[in-house]
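Quick one - inputs below.
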Amino acid sequence: MKLRLTLILFLFISNLFAQIDPSLLKRIPKDTVKQLLNMDAMYNRPSLNINKTPIAIGGYLETNWQKLTTDGISEGHQFQARRLSVFMSSAISKRIKFLSEIEYEEGGKEIAIEFASVDVEFHPLVNFRAGIIINPIGAFNQNHDGPKWEFTDRPISATQMLPGTFSNSGAGLFGKKYSGNWMFGYEAYFSGSFDNSIIDNTEGKTFLPSAKENPERFEEINSGEPLFTGKIAVRNSKIGEIGLSHMGGIYNKFTDDGITIDVPRRVNVYAIDFNTTLPKIKTFITGEWAWINVEVPETYTQQFGNKQHGGFLDIVQPVLKRKMLDWENASLNIACRLEYVDWNVGRFNETNGNIGEHLWSIMPAISFRPTSQTVIRLNYRLQKQTDIFGNPPSITDGYSLGISTYF
Amino acid sequence: MKKIFIFFVFCFSLISCETSYVDIPADDEILDGPVDGLSNEELARFLKGDEGFAEVFTGNTGLGSVFVASSCISCHAGDGKGHPFTTLIRFGQIDETGNMFLNQGGPQLQNRAMPGYTPEQIPFGATFAKFTPPANTGLGFLQYLTDADILAMADPDDLNGDGISGVPNWVVLPSYIDPQSAATQGGKYIGRFGKKAAAFNLLHQTVNAYNQDMGITSLYFPIDVYTGEEIDPEITTSKVNDVVFYLKTLKAPVQRNQNDPEVIHGKNLFNQVNCVGCHKSDLTTGYSPITALAFKNFSPYTDLLLHNMGSGLDDGYTEGIAKTYEWKTPALWGLGLSENSQGGQYFLMHDGRAHSIEEAISMHGGEATNSRTAFNNLSQAEKNAVLKFLKSL
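Output:
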């Protein structure tokens, strides 16, 4: 059904292109490198307006070559069509807007409506949003567009520990307030939730992204209890932005057909994110750290931990920013990403020894941006991951070379 | 502009020359990997088995409802010895008359349960023993050691007077096992796998592990451990067979530093104090349909026989015809790499109670008393040489 809808949508868009003079397409330029608040990421996307039609469309493509090696063994060279995202937005009226994002991952293997909401503004501080929303936990979940980042891979903590681009049916409020150099924003939504798979999955560890595999999640909440996600963020245009977010709710099915079959168990996630640009040297720093607490039955297995934490730190240093190879305002950057995830925080009941299952990674990068909306990036990753017992880590390293661009 | 061009050329040439700076671990530093000499078809099947061995089961794919572990690999990290986290608990049998608690969940405790379910408890009055998972490497060599060779190592009446009187464990086979031309005694056959040598072959061992460790039913063993009822198979027969093939064709551990004079000296002392009386080193396989395993010399440092290990290791539980104080000689090959699969520590002896090789030696009693005493009488330098030899295995 999803595929059919998408095809119809594409045919519709293709027809629009076929029937109009391309010169009528009006690009709405956006500097996607420069951010407002992270929560503005959905609005701050480049798009094309088609003459006087009410719809603006856009999107981005991410593709790369990669050769990684784990413990000296490589699967060889890989070309990867990571994702194609298509945005559509529409100003239904001056204060009612529709935004959407449909994402095709791995050449269409996975197709998802990541975001499709109607926003109704009652007051700048009180906007109602309903539809398929992206839960605003941390910063990356909302601000995940490939062309914004200097790395071909998404942060592990933000996509595998926290579920990357985690969206659900839901509704809630958001708002912003500006005062001089200061900006304040908030978001609060109730939405679909997690399910039992977060502690019962083939990853063999507590894995929140498993809930994304549930095809029923846009129609049915497994526990019957909504997930709350809330975030507050403050930004000073001269200092930077800091955001605090929380996502929590009951994840397991504890009643069925009116019969209590289990005790309700909660998942709680807390995250802090920040970003800043150092004055003069223009170093851009962004990071995110999250803590996850999951109620796991005592009689289950400690393989599925009740605590996780981890995060990432990106440092991007522009080296050259000028006309290069006939591109106006091109830039050359060096960057580095540091990542850490502890998938299972705690001690074994049997030995009182520390539970392993942690990962760290360092990823230096070089990126070239012919325009702010297109990035060519070369990354090297060195990653170490231990198993649950803390045995000598498996070491992964290798290069990625990719391009990502808005269109 | 030229500098930028040169910069990009430099970057591309960097990655075109070398894409990884991490070496493949040496063959003697890891336990996993296939035995030498497999054909391409056999290697492909080895890889399929490896995949099955790593498969993590979930509630949807049959895990539980009660279980000990969710995958083979969670008990045998890197195909090495296991950690106390996945220690098995067996209960309910005190002599050769059999397990009196089979109708109360025996012989194995499933001490974990899916959310919403209750794990098993050891029934009142049942004695029990804990079993730490063993290493998997070289198991095919042990399977294809002939019964005749095992019986030749047995000395039930200690006719050679060395104080060691190993006996095989004779076990009753489940109906899905075809013993072919195996030696038999009263309808029972020689067991060679497991702490008490209660499993006849790797199929027997694997089917039991799927059922008792993970709660996964198969065509071979379709009884659900939680309900005790026959249910549909939760794993395909071909996957079980592929995993068995994988276990058969895992390579034997490769000894390290075998030309080191101290290691050689340690080996001589190991023989001198007669550790080798049970931990036999020079064995040869018989016929095997897998050519790479047929008629091969190997050094597992076990005789696959049961030995009286003294009251200190008598947990009051047994299997087959073994006495509660009898244990199968564990293979010592791979011992030096145990720390790499047990989280940087040693958990030795049948239940992981020994935290060093020296402590494990000190726990040897019964038939091993003479060897333990002889080891204790060695000088510290000689003991160090023995330990170095054992760590080289």
